[in-house]
Amino acid sequence: MPKIVVLRWGHRPQRDARLTTHVVLTARALGASGVILTDVKDEKIKETVEKVVNNWGGRFFFEMGIPWEKAVRKWRENGGVVVHLTAYGENIETSDVLERIKASGKDVLVIVGSQKVPREFFSEKVSDFNVAIGNQPHSECSSLAVFLDRYFNGKELTKTFENAKIRIIPQKRGKKVVSSDSEF
Ligand SMILES: C[S@@+](CC[C@H](N)C(=O)[O-])C[C@H]1O[C@@H](n2cnc3c(N)ncnc32)[C@H](O)[C@@H]1O
Fold first, then answer.
1. Residue 23's pLDDT is what?
2. Best residue for ligand 1 mutational test, from 139, 141, 146 (most atoms within 8 Å of Cβ)
3. Can you tell me whether residue 140 is helix, strand or coil?
4. pLDDT band for position 182 (cuts 50, 70, 90)
């Protein structure tokens, strides 16, 4: 199965910390292999991600501070395709864009923005596919979640995260967790 990595562009440390953290948590929980936070560094987010991975398990990487141009260039040089999530793109429901992405058989770099993205993101130089999760504006988190769920056909929701210190046992009501650490 090809892997998916998320490129988070446009993070403003003063404004976007919570939302970027949610993008990373969404990426991890819904099957992506990692997130690249481009152009800026935010140590607090890195710390949060490390804590989550340490407690909740699984393999997941978080890189930051790489210029977006370099991240995209490297990805393409390594044979991956680039998907830019944007309300202006091909509608994931009414077009065959998802089938074309899957048919490529290649690893996928998914770009999500925050503020208005550079125009080049829409061009062939950057994106192989511009994908809309419906053509209404909403959020980087919701668009990423829907994209990943459709890409993995829901199977990511059954994933086991190896080496987890804490694991939820699903219940009709209440909370049940098992833990390998007395802290929980
Ligand atoms: C809050 S939106 C801001 C978009 C910005 N106003 C613009 O015009 O580019 C932030 C990000 O959410 C994602 N997004 C929002 N709505 C989307 C949609 N309908 N389909 C796909 N991605 C979407 C895009 O990645 C976008 O860069």
1. 98
2. 139
3. helix
4. low
Which residue is closest in CA terms to ligand 1's atom 9? 116
User: What CATH architecture applies to the domain 4-159?
Assistant: 3-Layer(aba) Sandwich (3.40)
pTM, 2 dp: 0.96
Under 8 Å between Cβ of 28 and 60: yes
Q: Relative to the CA of 113, which ligand 1 atom is closest?
A: 27
CB 162 within 8 A of CB 57: yes
Atom of ligand 1 nearest to the CA of 112: 25
Please state the atom number of ligand 1 nearest to the C-alpha of residue 144: 22
- Please compute Rg for the chain using Cα positions: 17
pLDDT, tens digit, 9 for 90 and up, residues 12-21: 999 999 999 9
Tell which atom from ligand 1 comes closest to the C-alpha of 138. Answer: 16
Site to substitute for ligand 1 among 140, 142, 149, 151, most atoms within 8 A of C-beta: 140
pLDDT tens per residue across span 156-169: 999 999 999 999 99
Domain boundaries, the chain: 4-159
Cα(148)–Cα(101) distance, rounded to whole angstroms? Answer: 12
> CA 39, 87, 141: angle at the middle one, nearest 5?
55
User: Among residues 48, 45, 19, which one has the least CA distance to residue 143?
Assistant: 19
